[in-house]
């Protein structure tokens, strides 16, 4: 049962493909004890069931809507790793393991390394809903969210908040749940002289008002069209607000422009008590603090975010490619990074490196010669290997993104586990501490699929001290992420072994940075002492805020503020 990926011969259009995946009839018997019709009526018929992305490829299915269809299967195979298609489908997750329930051996996946591999879907393979929510509510208004909260209290049905599905922790996936799907909240408006609501004495600022469905691809194009810079992340299909901002949000401009959470100036949110609130530096300041780094999916549903816009400026770009992946070369390369990270951060540089390449950018008003001089240690290292450091200048960050980054990061949709750690500046102070840090980094990365060295902390940025993420972000120079991919058919025990292996490796860096922390959104699934790692001394205050705005604990998610814990039935599918 193999279908060729010849898109020209696929009769099924995207809309037909979607139609095969959803069922608007809410009288399904998947949760027979709950009257879903009542909720559907209250939200103008926008309650749907969605099948897993690969549903059409399976002749055998249990507990899912949709049908087997060869043309629709071919379409799914062709778009299996296309992040921008995936984020339009409510039941699609960019981390494929969150579409499964490994503890029960239930899934509906194709082989992400080869979607044509018929062993993944031929009988006796059966398509199951896995951890994909039972129903999705397409949120259009605050009233929709209020009705969903009321429904959850009355029925006991768990709620999750789902946007584009980019995450490592499965926080927007849960079997038997109702997902509040915010992707279609597509508002984007430019306001050149904005004053926060209730802050009449505040000087006006240039901002953009965003709905949670706006992605980075949308954001950068809008910024370029309006002659402004809107910093953000690299993956085009990630929401530019949503969990990115609520959990921190880093990118290549973060060193000088701050994190996504730093630039968020106002939120409109529906909290679980049913209130629709505006949170900024002048009103509901406790909630404003919580939303700026306290994590998504737990304090309410954000309907709109106001984010700071910066002037459109040229950027310098430095690149190095083609390094050998042998251990000696990697050690020498990363030594250059460790030895020079403080100087480069102070000079305005930010970006990312791996084992074989580097890409840094600088938005400060420096000359090409000044850029070249500040990166001289990298140039000298490359020359020893007969390699050349590339240097370019782009008229804006958006143009650089569209021409360079967007094509590189468009691929998505594969099972991936990660661990991470922030590396404080004090570990870079002496040659001895730098050598110790380098050795720990090499040990942490050994025998894993990928390691990213992110120079994306807000080290050179002057923060306003109204954010709730761990203070470790402020005095760290690098964020390290180590990742491993999973097989599409990995069992619960195999997934657990991968996660535990990553966690054990990250202990090398944890041991030399005992007072540091990590990034809420891209962290170890088994992060030890997660409250301290994600929020540090801010956690106690966050827990109080959570209780104030969600006293019935309607919203809960893995390693979030006020988490119920692993023993809760909601997390039965976690490995």
UniProtKB/TrEMBL annotation:
GO molecular function (one): oxidoreductase activity
All copies of domain FAD-binding PCMH-type, residue ranges: 128-312
Protein keywords: Oxidoreductase
Annotated InterPro entries: BBE, FAD-bd_PCMH, FAD-bd_PCMH-like_sf, FAD-bd_PCMH_sub2, FAD-linked_Oxidoreductases_BP, Oxid_FAD_bind_N
Domain of life, source organism: Eukaryota
Entries under PROSITE patterns matching the protein: FAD_PCMH (PS51387)
Keyword Ribosomal protein attached: no
Record Gene3D superfamilies: 3.30.465.10
Pfam families, A to Z: BBE, FAD_binding_4
PANTHER family referenced in this protein's UniProt entry, alphabetically: FAD BINDING DOMAIN PROTEIN (AFU_ORTHOLOGUE AFUA_6G12070)-RELATED, GULONOLACTONE OXIDASE
Family: Belongs to the oxygen-dependent FAD-linked oxidoreductase family.
Protein name: FAD-binding PCMH-type domain-containing protein
Organism whose genome encodes this protein: Lentinula detonsa
């Amino acid at each position: 049962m193999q279908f060729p990926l010849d898109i020209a011969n696929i009769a099924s259009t995207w809309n037909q493909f979607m139609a095969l995946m959803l069922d608007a009839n809410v009288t399904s018997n998947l949760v027979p004890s709950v009257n879903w019709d009542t909720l559907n009526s209250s939200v103008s018929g926008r309650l749907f069931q969605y099948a897993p992305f690969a549903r059409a490829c399976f002749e055998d299915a249990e507990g899912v809507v949709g049908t087997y269809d060869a043309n629709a299967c071919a379409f799914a195979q062709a778009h299996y790793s296309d992040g921008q298609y995936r984020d339009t489908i409510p039941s699609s997750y960019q981390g494929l393991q969150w579409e499964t329930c490994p503890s029960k051996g239930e899934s509906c996946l194709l082989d992400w390394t080869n979607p044509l591999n018929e062993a993944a879907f031929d009988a006796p393979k059966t398509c199951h809903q896995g951890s994909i929510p039972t129903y999705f509510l397409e949120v259009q208004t605050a009233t929709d969210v209020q009705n969903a909260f009321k429904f959850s209290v009355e029925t006991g049905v768990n709620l999750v908040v789902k946007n584009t599905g980019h995450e490592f922790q499965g926080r927007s996936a849960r079997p038997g749940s109702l997902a509040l799907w915010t992707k279609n909240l597509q508002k984007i408006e430019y306001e050149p002289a904005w004053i926060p609501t209730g802050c009449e004495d505040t000087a006006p600022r240039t901002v953009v008002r965003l709905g949670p469905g706006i992605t980075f691809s949308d954001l950068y194009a809008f910024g370029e069209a309006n002659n402004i810079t809107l910093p953000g992340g690299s993956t085009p299909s990630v929401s530019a607000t949503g969990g990115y901002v609520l959990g921190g949000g880093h990118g290549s401009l973060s060193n000088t422009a701050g994190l996504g959470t730093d630039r968020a100036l106002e939120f409109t949110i529906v909290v679980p008590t049913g209130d629709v609130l505006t949170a900024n530096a002048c009103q509901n300041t406790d909630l404003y603090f919580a939303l700026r780094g306290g994590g998504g999916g737990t304090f309410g549903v954000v309907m709109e975010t106001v984010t700071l816009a910066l002037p459109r400026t040229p950027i310098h770009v430095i690149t190095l490619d083609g390094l050998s992946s042998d251990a000696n070369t990697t050690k020498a390369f990363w030594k250059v990074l460790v030895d020079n990270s403080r100087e480069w951060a102070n000079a305005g540089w930010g970006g990312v490196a791996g084992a074989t390449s580097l890409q840094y950018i600088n938005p400060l008003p420096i000359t090409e010669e000044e850029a070249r001089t500040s990166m001289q240690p990298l140039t000298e290292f490359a020359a020893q290997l007969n390699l050349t450091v590339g240097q370019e200048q782009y008229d804006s960050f958006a143009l650089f993104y569209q021409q360079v980054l967007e094509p590189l990061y468009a691929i998505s949709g594969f099972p991936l586990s990660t661990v991470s750690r922030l590396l404080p500046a004090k570990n870079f102070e002496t040659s001895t501490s730098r050598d110790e840090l380098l050795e720990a980094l090499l040990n942490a990365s050994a025998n894993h699929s990928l390691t990213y060295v992110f120079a994306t902390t807000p080290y050179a940025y002057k923060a306003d001290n109204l954010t709730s993420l761990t203070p470790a972000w402020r005095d760290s120079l690098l964020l390290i992420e180590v990742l491993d991919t999973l097989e599409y058919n990995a069992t619960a025990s195999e997934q657990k072994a991968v996660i535990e292996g990553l966690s054990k490796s990250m202990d090398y860096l944890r041991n030399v940075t005992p007072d540091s922390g990590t990034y809420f959104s891209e962290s170890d699934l088994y992060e030890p002492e997660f409250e301290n790692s994600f929020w540090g001394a801010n956690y106690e205050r966050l827990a109080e805020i959570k209780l104030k705005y969600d006293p019935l604990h309607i919203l809960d998610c893995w390693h979030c503020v006020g988490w119920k814990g692993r023993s809760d039935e909601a997390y039965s599918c976690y490995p």
